[in-house]
């Protein structure tokens, strides 16, 4: 049991057979974020194209693109850990503490 209420967690794996660097991973993150923005733009009809997909298809595509963004972000954390000595657990714990302080996560009593 964790100390947070309404706490959901998503775990994404470290990818094998890749040798990403900080710069290449950052560029990939921006590429994936652009694809996410493009999917959202299609969903909202903001790109000027006639949307030929059903809303659920577009929402599914948004979910897929969002997971691509998350995977690359996780991969970037592994790059920071392996090449620059950053402690991921400490960073995650610090991030969660920040979210608690801002009131985004409620602590169980």
Which key phrases capture this entry?
single chain, 109 residues, mainly alpha, 3 helices, 0% strand
* N-to-C series of helices and strands: HHH
Which spans of ≥5 residues are poorly predicted at pLDDT below 50?
A: none
Shape: flat
The N- to C-terminal Cα distance equals 12 Å
Main sheet properties: none
Keywords: Hydrolase
Domain NTP pyrophosphohydrolase MazG-like: 23-101
GO molecular function, one term: hydrolase activity
Protein name: NTP pyrophosphatase (Non-canonical NTP hydrolase)
Kindly describe this structure.
Helix 1 runs antiparallel to helix 2 (55-84). The longest helix is centred in the middle third of the chain and has 30 residues, at 55-84. The two termini are 12 Å apart. 61% of the residues lie in helices and 0% in strands. It contains three helices and no strands. It has 109 residues and is an all-alpha fold. It has one domain (22-101).
Secondary-structure topology with pairs:
Layout: H1 22-44, H2 55-84, H3 88-101
Helix pairs in contact: 1-2
